Amino acid sequence: MRRRYLLSAGGAAIGSIWLSQYLPERSQANSRVGAKFEINKTDDEWRKILTREQYDILRREGTEAPGSSLLLEEHRAGNFACAGCSLPLFNSKTKYESGTGWPSFYASIENAIATRRDGSRLEVHCRRCGGHLGHVFDDGPQPTGQRYCMNGAALKFIAG
Ligand SMILES: [Zn+2]
Predict the structure, then answer these.
(1) What is the pTM of this model?
(2) Torsion of CA 123, 124, 130, 133, to 10 degrees
(3) 2.40.50.100, 3.20.20.450, 3.30.470.20, 2.170.150.20: CATH of 37-159
(4) Ligand 1 mean position to 10 CA, how many Å?
Protein backbone atom coordinates (compact mmCIF):
# COMPACT_ATOMS: atom_id res chain seq x y z
CA MET A 1 0.00 0.00 0.00
CA ARG A 2 2.74 2.38 0.97
CA ARG A 3 4.53 1.76 -2.29
CA ARG A 4 1.41 2.39 -4.31
CA TYR A 5 0.74 5.61 -2.42
CA LEU A 6 4.24 6.87 -3.14
CA LEU A 7 3.94 6.06 -6.78
CA SER A 8 0.65 7.90 -7.20
CA ALA A 9 1.91 10.88 -5.23
CA GLY A 10 4.96 10.99 -7.46
CA GLY A 11 2.76 10.80 -10.51
CA ALA A 12 0.66 13.70 -9.30
CA ALA A 13 3.76 15.81 -8.65
CA ILE A 14 5.12 15.08 -12.09
CA GLY A 15 1.73 15.86 -13.55
CA SER A 16 1.52 19.27 -11.93
CA ILE A 17 5.07 20.16 -12.96
CA TRP A 18 4.27 19.08 -16.46
CA LEU A 19 1.10 21.16 -16.50
CA SER A 20 2.75 24.28 -15.10
CA GLN A 21 5.43 24.12 -17.77
CA TYR A 22 3.19 23.09 -20.57
CA LEU A 23 0.27 25.46 -20.16
CA PRO A 24 2.07 28.82 -20.41
CA GLU A 25 4.10 27.58 -23.33
CA ARG A 26 1.01 26.28 -25.03
CA SER A 27 -0.84 29.56 -24.67
CA GLN A 28 2.15 31.48 -26.03
CA ALA A 29 2.44 29.09 -28.93
CA ASN A 30 -1.22 29.64 -29.68
CA SER A 31 -0.85 33.39 -29.58
CA ARG A 32 2.04 33.11 -31.99
CA VAL A 33 -0.06 31.12 -34.42
CA GLY A 34 -2.68 33.84 -34.17
CA ALA A 35 -0.07 36.59 -34.44
CA LYS A 36 -0.19 38.67 -37.56
CA PHE A 37 3.13 38.95 -39.30
CA GLU A 38 3.72 41.48 -42.04
CA ILE A 39 4.33 38.65 -44.48
CA ASN A 40 1.85 35.79 -44.31
CA LYS A 41 1.89 32.90 -46.74
CA THR A 42 0.17 29.53 -46.83
CA ASP A 43 2.19 26.36 -46.38
CA ASP A 44 1.92 25.70 -50.11
CA GLU A 45 3.21 29.15 -50.95
CA TRP A 46 6.19 28.72 -48.61
CA ARG A 47 6.98 25.30 -50.11
CA LYS A 48 7.16 26.86 -53.57
CA ILE A 49 9.77 29.47 -52.67
CA LEU A 50 11.84 27.57 -50.08
CA THR A 51 14.07 24.54 -50.42
CA ARG A 52 12.98 21.54 -48.41
CA GLU A 53 15.63 22.24 -45.75
CA GLN A 54 14.68 25.91 -45.54
CA TYR A 55 11.02 24.96 -45.18
CA ASP A 56 11.72 22.37 -42.45
CA ILE A 57 13.63 24.95 -40.41
CA LEU A 58 11.75 28.18 -41.08
CA ARG A 59 8.22 26.81 -41.08
CA ARG A 60 8.53 23.62 -38.98
CA GLU A 61 11.14 24.74 -36.44
CA GLY A 62 13.62 22.11 -37.57
CA THR A 63 17.33 22.17 -36.73
CA GLU A 64 20.12 21.64 -39.25
CA ALA A 65 23.00 19.28 -38.48
CA PRO A 66 25.82 21.12 -36.69
CA GLY A 67 28.76 21.94 -38.95
CA SER A 68 26.63 21.64 -42.09
CA SER A 69 26.16 25.32 -42.97
CA LEU A 70 28.36 26.97 -45.57
CA LEU A 71 27.75 30.24 -43.71
CA LEU A 72 30.10 29.04 -40.95
CA GLU A 73 32.90 29.96 -43.35
CA GLU A 74 31.35 33.24 -44.47
CA HIS A 75 33.64 36.00 -43.23
CA ARG A 76 32.92 38.81 -45.70
CA ALA A 77 31.32 42.10 -44.66
CA GLY A 78 27.57 42.18 -45.16
CA ASN A 79 24.23 41.15 -43.72
CA PHE A 80 22.69 37.79 -42.98
CA ALA A 81 19.07 38.06 -44.06
CA CYS A 82 15.99 35.89 -43.53
CA ALA A 83 15.91 33.13 -46.16
CA GLY A 84 12.12 33.43 -46.19
CA CYS A 85 11.54 37.16 -46.68
CA SER A 86 15.04 38.72 -47.11
CA LEU A 87 14.78 41.01 -44.08
CA PRO A 88 18.37 41.73 -42.87
CA LEU A 89 18.69 40.08 -39.43
CA PHE A 90 22.37 40.06 -38.45
CA ASN A 91 25.38 42.12 -39.49
CA SER A 92 28.70 40.39 -40.14
CA LYS A 93 30.33 42.59 -37.47
CA THR A 94 28.42 40.67 -34.77
CA LYS A 95 29.26 37.19 -36.11
CA TYR A 96 31.70 35.12 -34.08
CA GLU A 97 32.99 31.57 -33.82
CA SER A 98 31.08 29.88 -30.99
CA GLY A 99 32.41 26.41 -31.65
CA THR A 100 28.87 24.98 -31.69
CA GLY A 101 28.75 24.23 -35.42
CA TRP A 102 25.97 26.77 -36.00
CA PRO A 103 26.44 30.35 -37.25
CA SER A 104 26.49 32.52 -34.12
CA PHE A 105 26.03 36.23 -33.48
CA TYR A 106 26.17 38.33 -30.33
CA ALA A 107 23.50 40.80 -31.47
CA SER A 108 20.71 41.09 -34.01
CA ILE A 109 19.90 44.06 -36.21
CA GLU A 110 17.43 46.33 -34.44
CA ASN A 111 13.75 45.44 -34.87
CA ALA A 112 14.60 42.40 -37.03
CA ILE A 113 13.79 39.46 -34.79
CA ALA A 114 11.25 38.44 -32.17
CA THR A 115 11.52 35.79 -29.46
CA ARG A 116 9.19 33.31 -27.81
CA ARG A 117 9.70 31.16 -24.71
CA ASP A 118 10.32 27.55 -25.82
CA GLY A 119 10.58 25.43 -22.67
CA SER A 120 13.84 26.47 -21.01
CA ARG A 121 15.05 28.18 -24.18
CA LEU A 122 14.19 31.37 -26.01
CA GLU A 123 13.14 30.73 -29.61
CA VAL A 124 14.12 33.32 -32.23
CA HIS A 125 12.05 34.07 -35.32
CA CYS A 126 11.94 36.66 -38.06
CA ARG A 127 9.89 39.68 -37.01
CA ARG A 128 8.49 40.11 -40.54
CA CYS A 129 7.50 36.61 -41.68
CA GLY A 130 7.62 34.59 -38.43
CA GLY A 131 10.16 32.15 -39.86
CA HIS A 132 11.98 30.12 -37.19
CA LEU A 133 15.70 30.96 -37.07
CA GLY A 134 17.13 29.28 -33.97
CA HIS A 135 17.53 30.14 -30.28
CA VAL A 136 19.26 32.79 -28.17
CA PHE A 137 21.28 32.01 -25.04
CA ASP A 138 22.94 34.23 -22.45
CA ASP A 139 26.41 32.68 -22.70
CA GLY A 140 27.69 34.81 -25.58
CA PRO A 141 30.64 37.20 -25.73
CA GLN A 142 30.70 40.87 -24.79
CA PRO A 143 29.40 43.48 -25.38
CA THR A 144 25.96 41.83 -25.11
CA GLY A 145 26.69 38.45 -23.51
CA GLN A 146 24.14 36.93 -25.87
CA ARG A 147 24.59 34.02 -28.27
CA TYR A 148 22.20 33.91 -31.19
CA CYS A 149 22.54 30.29 -32.31
CA MET A 150 21.16 30.28 -35.85
CA ASN A 151 20.40 27.70 -38.48
CA GLY A 152 22.46 28.71 -41.51
CA ALA A 153 19.74 27.38 -43.81
CA ALA A 154 17.34 29.98 -42.37
CA LEU A 155 19.70 32.75 -43.47
CA LYS A 156 21.12 34.08 -46.72
CA PHE A 157 24.22 36.22 -46.92
CA ILE A 158 24.11 39.54 -48.73
CA ALA A 159 27.58 41.02 -49.20
CA GLY A 160 28.10 44.74 -48.93
ZN1 LIG B 1 11.52 36.60 -42.63
Answers:
(1) 0.79
(2) -110
(3) 2.170.150.20
(4) 44
